[in-house]
Amino acid sequence: MNTHIPAIFTNTPYTTGVDLQLAELLSYKQHGKLSLNAKRLPASRQLSGNYLANIKGRGMEFAEVRHYQPGDDVRAIDWAVTARTGKAHTKLFQEEKERPVFLLVDVSDSMIFGSQFVFKSVQACHLASLLSWQAKQRNDRLGGIVFNQQEVAELKPTSRSKGLMAFLHQSQMLCKNVAFKTKQQQSLLLQLKRLSHLVQTGSQVHLISDFSQLDEGCYKLINLMRRHNQVTVWQVSDPLESHLPKQVLQTSLKINSMTGSGFLKNQRQQQSYQEAASQRQQLMENNLLKYGIAHYHISSSIPLLEQFNAYAQ
């Protein structure tokens, strides 16, 4: 991969596109007010989606106790205070001002790749940074999980700048452009299980990965979180994963992967490669649509803001 950013992109937050710098993530502070247009789903899917309640998850927190007044909900009577004082008292509640936002950021082996602009892992962290600054702009609490092949950082939701800076720091530390081989490798399924225990009911959840490890177990966990939270899937991909360059279609192309190596020796095999990629993508999109989960594509070959602005209001 060419580590020099083309001149057309010199005004972007990226430096080399390979090594992630904390300054790149901090630069998204000025874009914290960007917001997404909720994707429109078919009518048959809307009830299973997450777009009906804009304040879903913003529950009610206790405010004070006062004397019971006619018309008060009897279910809100504070029986302990009533028994102690001999007079009926009722609890008052107010809407929570903060909403937990959780991010799952995958920077594992399959994400350490980029053919044109930046590594997928770098793009994933840029996206996580933008979503984090948006959460801070709304005064929401931020937490989540960042993981590579070797390490996991789990952060409980924290308000104000403390949670955001902790998340950005962990993203930068774990986004290493070295593929690790360990006996106990971290997996997407394992991190989704971890996240499902961390997420609080009514939260906003962003899943950022290439989803190369997506399987039936992952779908089940994502659907379980979707039932009580607003879940958005951000799929980070590289153009080479779906289409091969025209200039290599006439040659023998060597393919290396974590499971082995091989050659695409003729045009038929290369076409099969692209068809298999298309089928995997279609299966993923169909499953997410079935569960009513918003799904966005982010390419590693184009600056993030250029793509995000197309989704933003």
3D architecture notes:
InterPro entries: DUF58, vWFA_dom_sf. Residues 64-247 form the DUF58 domain. It comes from Psychromonas arctica. By secondary structure, the protein is of the alpha/beta class. The chain has two domains: 9-52 and 100-311, Rossmann fold, CATH 3.40.50; 60-95, no CATH class. The protein is 34% helix and 21% strand. It is built from nine helices and ten strands. A six-stranded mixed sheet has the order 5-4-3-6-7-10, sandwiched between helices. The chain has a two-stranded antiparallel ribbon with strand order 1-2. Helix 4 (120-137) links the parallel strand 3 (100-106) and strand 4 (141-147). Helix 4 (120-137) packs antiparallel against helix 5 (160-174) and helix 6 packs parallel to helix 7 (216-228). The longest helix has 24 residues, at 267-290. It is elongated and about 90 Å long. Mean pLDDT is 79; it is low at 1-10 and 38-58.
